[in-house]
Amino acid sequence: MDYEIVIGLEVHTELKTASKIFCGCSTRFGSDQNTNVCPVCLGLPGVLPVLNAKVLEFAVRTGVALNCRILPFSKFDRKNYYYPDLPKNFQTSQYDLPIAVDGYLDIETSQGTKRIGITRVHMEEDAGKLIHSGSITKSEYALVDYNRTGVPLLEIVSEPDIRSAEEAKAYLEKMKAILQYIDVSDCKMEEGSLRCDANISLRPVGTVPLGTKAEIKNLNSFKAVQKGLEYEAERQAEVLGEGGKIIQETRSWDDARGITLSLRNKEQAHDYRYLPEPDLVPIIVDPAWVESIRQNLPELPDARQGRLIKDYGLSAYDAGVITASRAMADYFDATISAGADAKTATNWLMGEVSKFLNTSGQSIEECPVGPQKLVGLIALIDKGTISLKIAKAVFEEMCASGKDAETIVKEQGLVQISDEGKIVAVVEAVIAANPQSVVDYQAGKERAIGFLVGQIMKQTKGRANPELVNKLLRERM
Amino acid sequence: MELNKLKAHELHRKLQAKEISAVEIAEAVFSRISAVEDKVRSYITLTREEAMEQARRTDEKIGRGETIAPLAGIPGAIKDNICTKGIKTTCGSKILNNFIPPYSATVVDKLSAQDTVIVGKTNMDEFGMGSSTENSAYFNSRNPWDTDAVPGGSSGGSAAAVAAAEAIWAIGSDTGGSVRLPAAYCGVVGLKPTYGRVSRYGLVAYGSSLDQIGPITRDVTDSALVLGAISGYDPADSTSANAAVPDYTKALVPDIRGMKVGLPKEYFVAGMDPEVGKAVYRAIEQLKAMGADYKEVSMPHTSYALAAYYVVATAEVSSNLARYDGVGFGHRGEGNDIISMCKRTRTEGFGEEVRRRIMLGTYALSSGYYDAYYLKALKVRTLIKQDFDKAFEQVDILVTPIAPSPAFKIGENVDDPLAMYLQDVCTVPINLAGVPAISLPCGFKGNLPIGLQIIGKPLAEETILRAAFAFEQSNDYYQRLAPLGGA
Amino acid sequence: MKITREDVENVALLSRLELNEADVAKFTGQLNAILDYVDMLNMVDTSGVEPTAHVLPLKNVMRADEAKTSLPRELALSNAPQQEDGYFKVPKIMEG
After folding, report:
1. B414 vs A374, A451, B94, B183, C27, CA distance in Å?
2. How far is B469 from chain C (nearest CA, A)?
3. How confident is the model at residue B485 (pLDDT cuts 50, 70, 90)?
């Protein structure tokens, strides 16, 4: 039996507002426990919520960026359930009239562009953080930090249009890019400002009805999402293959063991008993305001990618990598503004810069080499002051020391030797010292010249102009 | 003359004229409390030291020649479900027996801004649920007119305190009649403002779409003063009306010529005590004699109001009370894990009526029943509101009884929840519609006061105050003090 | 509509209340009586009637996005039945 994988993703993103959704406490991440709290977000007796206008604006902006219909009448509802990270034991969220519905985003797959539907976008408040002493199953007590309660969240639910773990990853990357581009969230999964839960089921290829789904939680990185879904798809296929049935349940991804575990709990009778939030009044959205948000939307990733292809002749792939995150795209734009050639800048960004960021674990915003400095380095190559190879070493030094290229080249005496006279001397000396290589080369072994070049570079501490070395070598052989 | 028997407006004049001091007034009130509190039991917490300090500061202000606000130096009582920073706030419940709010309700801040003196926190039915204050987890309060009778509820302590001259004024909260009913039972004036007129920030929520804080006072003039002090738009309350607060004392003109008065026949329920009906009809005759135009109106959905109320209010309270779980504040019961601790906390901490209403509300919202109960009740609520809208196209005010009978005996209704609920039949439609209403004495059955309810259009507090003032001034009920009131 | 003992037990679980046998019996009886009374709502024709969740015609009530000073931590924890190290402390949370 051939099964088709059906995936729907639920993304929660923390909005980068200054204050919480219903009170004036700061949303700042990383504060000492219980220092960003007030009677309202603590849910003390007698308190009342007041909606943060920026949250609504960000929600509408997100809805528009995701091609949704903004509902003209929207309201908040209480989702009632008991959990210690929820001070009121209900979450103020949106149930039947969310702010935005019926949108989509496009992802690139190996089969081309694919449209993933977005069912809804709604506003809600975040819960607090629980710390268990010891493991979650063995601890005798837990500690609660309410700093995070009331931080504004958007919940974005996709249609079950995703058909593979790779597509899921592509969807998340695109979602993250869009949210960053429109500046509503910094989308740092490691800080919890972007979270993802997945619903996955299988159905026989060619059939329509959806299979029983499992909800997968604890997917804390894009990689975890991909691995988790791949594992769960296989697990479900095995169960079905043995004639078993999939149980509708919540499962947790265990990254260390690479498996999903059932979180089924008899006490979790999830009857949320939604009721319209009596302490908040409805939201009537002015279509003219929505239109102005649409007009003023920052350039989105796809459009920006298109512009880079058109204006600079980048390949679709390269433009895609550059525009995958807003920060990277902004960096690119800054290098162009500072005078760099587009292709060169692209090569550096996708090459050395990305390599450095991957190793150091930093984001492009944290890169010690900013656009201006990179352009300075590229200029030295263009002028012939240093070779590309030396430039790569200089770049590493720039990252480590924070100094600019010119300073490093000067300090380390790395200026390229382009004086023919000086190079000729070394070339002739190396030829004289390696007669066998000369013979090999003349016999047709191209690689022999590489060895000779290497020797020349060694003698000149890498500073000889490579093109000149090659030219002079070949002339003399 | 014992100062605690005077009205706020009388005391204010004397303070301004420097005939008396705020400290003297406060001492008179506390002296009264010492004398009668063990019989009346209005207060859960007394704040004597703070009160004397507030009185002294007011005297200093007067001494400096500064002008003082109408309630400056006048001792009043706050119902114990209104948060007072640093002062224990129990809501009449064991589950909050140690709760000290780190903030004050907006109305408390507004009263403090008038340099008023706060005597203490008054007894109440637990979390506002009840009509007799017998559901207090602490003790029963008693009616100063007959200490074997209930003072009404849920603001029974506030009403008893005012009627017993243990406070010059008080504030309570009204979700289904909880200011108006005890005021009527205790022969004083109780006003429930239009929903949204007074901030709910700091009022521990019962029925969020129904709750309002209102004054309980010895006369209509004082009611206008307290209303003026507590009213106003509050940015901390999203359901707060953004409407200017008029000077309510300007409405106190005893002239109702041409005012159109309606009597909704559906309020004269079967089983109503005939004395109550007689007193209300007599009141109508008086209003007519003063020049009001009278007509009978019909509000056909009145008989469904109680049912709608008990679905809406309990649904909201089942959610509002979920936060009492022993985690962040209040009582915590034993339990090795969070769920057992939470269950034990709530079962120990909540009284029977509260548990009953939580379960009823939870049921009404639960999967499969939402449409049949909660949604249905919200639709009936629309029809009840429309009844008022249509009536107010014909009349300016509606006049009705407050309750089917005067105060009943302590213990009479405790075993029959439904019989207790039926006391609210004349008051709950007003909360469902969100309109303002005032109750004041209009007669007696034996020694127990009978209350008259005057209902107005949204934000028409001035109209009902005027009608109430006119009626009050042509009678002498406001001069009479309860036997325990020092008559 | 009738509420059964099972319904009462379920509702008690949902609202985190303990009920012993006697309680279940008593509450089932009382809730049934109340629900019988409430049943009268079904006699009202509400076709085409919108529900009223808010009596005031308010909409779009919001505040500016400004961070204000929070409560000092001691005050935030001042009513905590148990605390440790600036956290609220609760008995263990059992999962699964």
Report:
1. 82, 103, 19, 20, 15
2. 27
3. low
ipTM surpasses cut 0.85: yes
Residues of chain B found within 8 Å of residue C37, distances taken between Cβ atoms: 306-307, 310, 418, 421
Which residues of B, range 92-131, sit inside 8 Å of C by Cβ?
Answer: 98-100, 102
- CB-based contact (8 Å) between C54 and chain A? yes
Backbone angles phi, psi at A125, to 5 degrees: -100, 150
Instruction: Give the Å distances, CA to CA, from B270 to B248, B274, B277, B281.
Output: 36, 10, 11, 16
- pLDDT above 50 for A267: no
Pairing between strand B437-445 and B293-297?
unpaired
Whether B102 contacts C71, CB under 8 Å:
yes
Angstroms from B382 CA to nearest CA on chain A: 15
Burial (CB < 10 A; 0-12, 13-18, 19+), residue B315, is buried
Could you write out the DSSP letters of every residue in B400-412? EESSSSSPPBTTS
Query: What are the pLDDT digits (tens) for B224-246?
Result: 999 999 999 999 999 999 999 99
**Quick check: is B154 catalytic?**
yes
Q: How many angstroms separate the CA atoms of C4 and B475, rounded?
A: 53
Considering chain B, what percentage of its residues have pLDDT values greater than 90?
94
Tell me if the domain spanning C5-43 has CATH number 1.10.3470.
Answer: no
Residue B484 confidence (pLDDT)? 79
Identify which of A46, A51, A273 has the shortest CB distance to residue B202: A46
The order of strands in the sheet holding A112-125 is: A69-70, A100-109, A112-125, A152-158, A3-14, A194-204, A214-219, A249-254, A259-262
Residue C35 has pLDDT above 60, yes or no: yes
Q: Which residue has the tokens 């209902």?
A: B455
CA distance A126 to chain B (A): 16
Which residue in the set C53, C59, C92 is minimally distant from A278, CB to CB? Answer: C53
Does residue B79 carry a catalytic annotation?
yes
Decide if B235 and A50 are in contact by the 8 Å CB cutoff.
yes
**DSSP label of B473:** H
Any idea where the domains of chain C sit in the sequence?
5-43
- Domains of chain B are 3-261+394-486 (3.90.1300.10), 303-378 (no CATH)
B178 is catalytic: yes
Active-site residue, from B7, B79, B110, B457: B79
Interface test with C, best of B321, B380, B389 (most C CBs within 10 A): B380
Spell out which residues of chain B touch residue A47, defining contact as CB-CB under 8 Å: 201-202
The mean of the pLDDT values for chain B is: 96
Question: What is the biggest distance separating any 2 CA atoms in chain B, rounded to whole angstroms?
Answer: 70
Report the alpha-carbon distance of residue C34 to residue C28 in Å, rounded.
10
Where residue B152 falls (left for φ over 0; alpha for ψ -120 to 50; beta otherwise) is left
* Cα–Cα dist B377/C37, whole Å: 13
Q: How confident is the model at residue C96 (pLDDT cuts 50, 70, 90)?
A: very low
**Residue C36 binned pLDDT confidence (cut-offs 50, 70, 90):** very high
CB contacts under 8 A, C 76-95 vs B, are 76, 78-82, 88, 90-94
Given CB atoms, is B419 within the 8 Å cutoff of chain C?
no
Give the residue on B whose Cα is nearest the Cα of C20. Answer: B347
CA distance A384 to A376: 13
- Of residues B154, B173, B199, B231, which has the active-site annotation? B154
The chain C residue lying nearest A54, using CA atoms, is C65
- Contact with chain A for residue C75, Cβ under 8 A: no
Domains within chain A, CATH numbers bracketed:
3-291 (no CATH), 299-412 (no CATH), 420-475 (1.10.10.410)
**Helix (H) and strand (E) counts in chain A:** 17, 17
Rounded-to-integer distance, Cα A184 and Cα A158, Å = 19
